[in-house]
Specification:
about 10% strand; seven-stranded mixed sheet; 14 strands; alpha/beta
Amino acid sequence: MTPKTLTDALPIVAAAYGRKFGIPVRVGGTQALTDGGVIVIPAIGSDATARTLAWGYLAHEAAHVRYTDFALPRAHTPLERFIQGVIEDIRIEGELIAAYPGTRRTLDAIVAALVADGSLAAVGETESPSDILGNGFLAVARHRYRKQEALASHAKEADRAMRAVFQPRFVHRLQGLMSEIPRLANTAASIDLARRIVGLIEEESQEPPPPAPIQPTSPSDGDSDADSDAGSGTSERDAEQDDAGDGGSENGASADDGGEDRDEEDEKGQDGRSADSGTGSSEQSLNQGRETEQTNDPDSTTAGNDARRALQQALSATDADLPEDLFASVAQALNGQHRDPATLLPAAEAYVGDLRSGRMALDRVNGHSAKLTARLQGLIETHTLERARAGRRGRSLSPRHLHRAGVGDPRVFRIREQAIAPNTAIHLLVDLSSSMSAGRDAIALDAAAALALALEPVKGVSRAVTAFPSLQGHAEKVTRILAHGERVASRVGAFVQRGRGGTPMTGALWFAAADLLARRETRKVIITLTDGQPDDLCTAADLIERAGAAGIEMIGVGIAVDVGRLFPIAVRIDAVADLKTALFGIAEQLLLT
């Protein structure tokens, strides 16, 4: 067993991702999900593809937790929700990559894996309009604006299919709106863009209005002058519409001729004018002019009607008709890979507790802690003060030992011995299961408080304290009592709790191991205060062995029981007063050897 076998373990890597992004991560259960605060992935095997999906899922969901405003209302229609999801996914991934450039490879790898195994296939002209629009929008948007090269051919095929089914003019206008994706600043902007895109689809799906008939004027009308004056504005507007219609036909033709080679122009925003004015009066004039021409072309009229029907079908699509959300499919793939529903890596919950009760507990353990601190400090000073001794070789003479030369003793050289200073990170785990009730829970907490307090002034020692299971007795969480760098006096209330639930020791050990592997200290120690009855003895024992082989020293403190069968180093205490004697020898070994 090497350290790498533990550091490569799923809970350790998942915890590292959580620390990197500042998001709690839990490993276990059967469902990959996030509730906006905690990311959960099931315990999967060592399959390389499954690991790729897991790391990409963690990064993507972390981006949502960090950058998506979940308080904003979602769209009401399935199509708008889908488009909004694609846009927001691209936006938040861009934000994450800007903050953590290395995540680009992780996120791109997940798309490459889905393309490679056929889960993300290119769309064709024969598929349903909702599939063509949904998959086409996804492929083009991710390829152009997330620069995911694995989707290059998919985007090309999608562009061709959309132009064939929905008409090039619509695709051109759609891509004009899509060019705004890189400039979106927040979730509200994503929602607004999705709404405008759906508005464009609704507009293009409508029958064009018939051309306005030209009303002849009669010169014999007695009020002809007044009518002419009153109607001149209308006649001028009709003429302007005719002119706009002619001009629109030329613009439309050039858009059609552009074909697939318009990608670069679209990204530069040259079609931004039509996108920005998609529902304005000038665009309506453009529609009228184009429809006037198309009435004389049966083939063009048929194609236009087909495109409108296709857009109408896409607008009326249900969630089942549209492609599945990309990362919802990733979650489904991870769910199918889960091996064990038990929680391997719990998330941490905060707990303040009752300050008054905590101060009483602190007063209770202060005496024991002070005695232990004094012995530890004296021990450390004895070993860390620089000492000199006389030796047979050296660069400088020892004046106090020169007399030895007269009797033939060569030990007259001064040799300085290197001091040994502590460099240790300790994580104390407190078992607060139901079996620890009847006073054992109080003994364990008092012992943890006394040891944490005793180590607080020792330079070179960092300590943390965590209780398991959660406050509600669940295995999915552990309760954080003291974090590294915190003072016991500021967290005294958290040291007053009661036993509850089962004994999910394996998850707590994974949590502590992940915490210590992220520390810089050369020595890492997990001290577990327990009655030695974990829910799963086999997995707990296996992890204790793995952690020990990877360089983490595992110590068990049995509360009124012997835990030597589970931990390689074990002591027993029946009261907090036993802590000084029981742990002094272990502390000497841990801090100074």
